[in-house]
């Protein structure tokens, strides 16, 4: 993992630019873009301003000359939260890629995660859309790797963290955070004695990209660099699908959980020693 002076931050890019950088130069073509006005019908009812793409950019193009679709979540809109429309856009794109494969058309799929989870204002509809994303990933990964990237800005939490876990290959940076519940939610619900959300060193030692990679919950740890991340995505497709997807390794994770005494709180270092594979 190296980073030269010419590195360009991936994290600082907006979703549309992130998708463009993942695809081959000149192949970016946005689908269901802002002019289609697929906005949330629920946010105006709560006096919340909508965004023309509902926080998800879908792009078709090619990766190493092969047809590809990229779904990029915009963290700057509602914290990358998944509502009915945003979630349906991602699920629909993955389902279309599945149809392509069933017709003999190879289509690669990449999800650029940056999400706090379900959009609370859309509650059940958002959760249903996330479940559709989960189902679409599992169906599609039988044909082609589904590659996820958590670069960092918001992180990846809630139901979308499960979507990341279902991906065939998960790429993270040191700045990424990945967890079922965000630290602020844990502090709010369980108190600061349980977790101080302002303790950045502690938070990243628990759920940061390096820790997730070291404990086998992410596959590639790369620098925050456009070229490094784009190359990691390309390597993932060259490597193909794993023999056993992480989420299908039920026996393996049962054994790992059984090796932990719930009465004893493990430190991040001890968890690496217990679960570490890298």
Question: In words, what does this structure look like?
Answer:
- The protein has 278 residues and is α/β, with parallel strands linked by helices.
- Helix content is 38%, strand content 15%.
- The chain contains ten helices and nine strands.
- The strands form two sheets. Strands 1-2-3-4-5-7-9 form a seven-stranded mixed sheet, with helices on both faces. A two-stranded parallel ribbon has the order 6-8.
- It starts with 14 loop residues before the first helix and ends with a helix.
- The model has no long low-confidence stretch (mean pLDDT 94).
- Keywords: Lyase, Membrane, Transferase, Transmembrane, Transmembrane helix.
- It holds the Pfam family Carboxyl_trans.
- This is Biotin-independent malonate decarboxylase subunit beta.
- It comes from Govanella unica.
Sheet with most strands: 7 strands, mixed
SS elements, strand count: 9
Strand and helix order: HEEEHEHEEHEEHHHEHHH
User: What's the end-to-end separation, in Å?
Assistant: 14 Å
Q: Multimeric state of these chains?
A: single chain
